[in-house]
Design a protein that fits this description.
Number of helices: 7
Strand order of the largest sheet: 5-4-3-6-7-8-9
CATH architecture: 3-Layer(aba) Sandwich
CATH class: Alpha Beta
CATH topology: Rossmann fold
Largest sheet: 7 strands, mixed
Number of domains: 1
Structural class: alpha/beta
Strand content: 15-25%
Shape: globular
Radius of gyration: 17 Å
Oligomer: single chain
Length: 248
């Protein structure tokens, strides 16, 4: 354990895990059956079979309508365990990835702390994961660096009227210092390392989950032990869009 963990090289990513990067213009899905509780219930059962156990995470996954965050042409695939393009060269992560990342950061929090827990999401994208996080944590702050995606997420989330979710347009590498400290941080983009600012914005006992790597990536779980120490674990091979500096 050290103040600035030395990042281990992640394992090679299987070719089958690569997410499609085709860009499409965001549209509202329509048509019968897309919002069915049954489709989401089947997705949740699939998540259980894949090993997701936290009841609150599973309930949140079953409540948020994933089809409302993707293009109409792809809405019929919204509850499959696949990543889908959302425009601007970005993707919505597959449901199992969203559920596992949230479960990893929330499972160390006692119920008493969950009731007031604050989470930071780096990479709002279309807003889907932010909506799930808002059903698990008391307060959610989500940062997006691409103006078009920030506005898209706002539009997607407006009708849901989620009072405990705040969207921020800005450089996610800097975090949101004025809202810190955070009990959990979820990074939805892969960098070569966790930005220093995010270490400092973790409360003691907080967890951060992040994909780390460039051509090869792996999930890294970071826990803040005390004011000067962080513990790092390397988990599964993954594929995420790159973490970039600045805004666009």
């Amino acid at each position: 354990m050290s103040r600035r963990p030395a990042w281990l090289p992640p394992p090679r990513l299987p070719e089958s895990a690569r997410a499609t990067q085709r860009v499409v213009a965001p549209q509202r899905p329509s048509g019968p059956g897309l919002a069915s509780d049954g489709a989401r219930a089947r997705m949740v059962e699939s998540l259980r079979r894949l090993g997701v156990r936290d009841a609150r995470v599973l309930d949140a996954m079953g409540q948020v309508p994933r089809h409302a965050f993707v293009d109409a042409a792809l809405a019929s695939r919204a509850y499959e365990d696949v990543a889908l393009p959302i425009g601007h060269g970005q993707t919505i992560s597959k449901p199992s990835t969203v559920a596992r990342m949230i479960e990893l950061v929330v499972q160390s929090l006692p119920e008493s702390r969950r009731a007031a827990a604050r989470v930071l999401e780096i990479g709002t994208g279309c807003g889907y994961q932010a909506a799930v996080l808002a059903r698990v944590f008391a307060q959610v702050v989500s940062v997006e660096r691409v103006r078009g995606l920030h506005e898209q997420a706002r539009n997607n989330l407006r009708a849901m009227r989620i009072a405990n979710l705040r969207l921020v347009f800005g450089d996610g590498r800097l975090g949101v210092a004025q809202a810190a400290p955070f009990d959990a941080i979820v990074m939805a983009a892969a960098g070569e390392a966790v930005p220093d600012a995010l270490f400092e914005q973790m409360s003691v006992g907080a967890r951060l989950i992040a994909p780390i790597g460039t051509t090869r990536q792996a999930l890294h779980l970071v826990e803040r032990i005390d004011r000067e120490r962080w513990q790092v674990s390397v988990l599964d091979a993954v594929r995420f869009v790159p973490l970039r500096t600045g805004t666009s």
